[in-house]
Design goal:
There is one protein chain. By secondary structure, the protein is mainly alpha-helical. The chain is built from 19 helices and six strands. The longest helix has 37 residues, at 109-145. 40% of the residues are buried. The chain binds arginine (ARG). Arginine (ARG) binds next to α6.
């Protein structure tokens, strides 16, 4: 097929070379941004008398028509075209004749594609932020329900100290909150306009880059034309942010998978978010959580792929950079799906609070509180720690728990033990006494919930 860029060469290429070179099967999703950008470009050209106002009006009307024809399906994207930029220009020229050929004055596909990606991705950032907010809302709502449900808190996956399920959930709300902040921060650097950088060196036409930037909702312009067309930092940055977000979802997934096992039985997922086995009738599998965990690897791969593509690339545009889109689009599509599924899964899960409490009781997780009790009665911490440890060993030997040991036994270990001990090592007391800011007490969890809700205006 003869190319629009035919000139120095006859533009006749092998089919296999065309297929290899083409990006239309993935960049066609940016048609709206491409056309909107072109309309602003035509308006700028007219405002600077580079083309006539009449030509600009014709171009803008033609572009508007292409946009609505694509939206309605009247016009289909021609997958034989090299990319979306060529397709739009080709249709425009076919429809308008010579006027269509004026659109590409004072720009290049290099700044055009950079513009399109930025415009596309800033919308994606907004969508991902909104979906993350929805997930935080679901997590926070659950935390409210389970703000006094006692469970074991773990370190080394060994039962450590009693916490509430609400407190545990709110830890994830905090992580997700940071994810939103990171994405919003990334959006600021992304929202600068590269259009007008042209191929690499700027242009001899007296253009107005600020006019276009403003029209397209940018906060400013890229200040160096070489940088403007070679920069894909914003893609890498956004993918890093998405990778961290996926890492959080993956850690959460891992816990949900553990908690819904028979061994833990802490949570019950809704049937709507689980699957069965084709052979084992008893199975209820947490596939959604497993897939989110699995897809995290894929998103890390997208990030690594682009970092590696960009490594060592000389300035300015190189065709290698066409590889940016599949990676970033895949990362965006994946996180969008994961967030939606995850929100539904969290909103519909129920906690088995009786089992959580049982696990907490069997884990001697009040042993620290037992030691603290003796410290408050005047014993140095190290001595108290030792007695507490010996009592735990005794319980294990006798197959009992600290709450059930009779007072005579306690007295054998220290005369400081008195009846108020049982109250002090009661699990709810242990939780409620952790009133330090950010701790697990119900009041503290309520404060965290309030903080998140206010921040997100939930
Ligand atoms: N399809 C190309 C891309 O995605 C557009 C830019 C092409 N520029 C060029 N000089 N060949 O990167």
């Amino acid at each position: 097929m003869a190319k629009m860029w035919a000139g120095r060469t006859d533009g006749k290429t092998e089919k296999i070379a065309d297929d290899f070179n083409s990006s239309i099967h993935f960049d066609s999703r940016m048609y709206r941004q491409d056309i909107t950008g072109s309309m602003a470009h035509a308006a700028m050209l007219a405002s600077k008398n580079i083309i006539s106002p009449a030509d600009a009006d014709t171009l803008i009307a033609g572009l508007e028509q292409i946009l609505s024809d694509l939206d309605s399906g009247v016009l289909a994207i021609d997958m034989e075209c090299e990319d979306i930029h060529m397709f739009v220009e080709q249709v425009l020229t076919a429809r308008l004749g010579d006027v269509g050929k004026k659109l590409h004055t004072a720009r290049s596909r290099n700044d055009q594609v950079a513009l399109d990606i930025r415009m596309y991705l800033r919308e994606q950032v907004d969508q991902i932020v909104e979906l993350t907010q929805n997930l935080i809302a679901a997590v926070t709502e659950k935390a409210e329900v389970y703000k006094d449900a006692i469970m074991p808190g773990y370190t080394h996956l060994q039962r450590a100290q009693p916490i509430t399920f609400g407190h545990h959930l709110m830890a994830y709300a905090m992580m997700l909150l940071r994810d939103i902040q990171r994405l919003q921060d990334c959006r600021k650097r992304m929202n600068l306009s590269p259009i007008g950088c042209c191929a690499l060196a700027g242009t001899t036409y007296d253009t107005d880059r600020h006019f276009e930037a403003e029209k397209l909702g940018f906060d400013g312009i890229c200040m160096n034309s070489l940088d403007g067309v070679s920069d894909r930092d914003f893609c890498v940055e956004m993918m890093s942010d998405i990778a961290i977000l996926m890492m959080h979802l993956s850690r959460f997934s891992e816990e949900i998978i553990l908690w819904s096992s028979w061994e833990f039985k802490f949570v019950e997922l809704s049937d709507a978010y689980t699957t069965g086995s084709s052979i084992m009738p008893q199975k209820k599998n947490p596939d959604m959580a497993e897939l989110v965990r699995g897809k995290t690897g894929r998103v890390y791969g997208d990030l690594m792929a682009l970092l590696t593509t960009l490594k060592g690339l000389p300035l300015a545009y190189n065709k290698d950079m066409q590889e940016d889109k599949e990676a970033i689009f895949d990362a965006c599509d994946t996180v969008v799906m994961c967030l939606q599924v995850f929100t539904g899964m969290i909103a519909t899960l129920t906690a088995n609070t009786a089992n959580m409490k049982l696990a907490a009781q069997k884990g001697f997780i009040n042993a620290t509180d037992l030691a603290d009790y003796l410290v408050k009665k005047g014993l140095p911490f190290r001595s108290a720690y030792k007695i507490s440890g010996q009592l735990v060993a005794l319980c294990i030997q006798k197959n009992t728990v600290l709450e059930e040991l009779p007072m005579e036994v306690y007295k054998d270990f220290s005369p400081l033990f008195e009846e108020d001990l049982y109250e002090a090592i009661d699990l709810m007391t242990c939780v409620q006494k952790r009133i330090s800011e950010g701790g697990t007490s119900v009041a503290s969890v309520e404060k965290q919930i309030k903080y998140v809700k206010e921040l997100l205006t939930l």
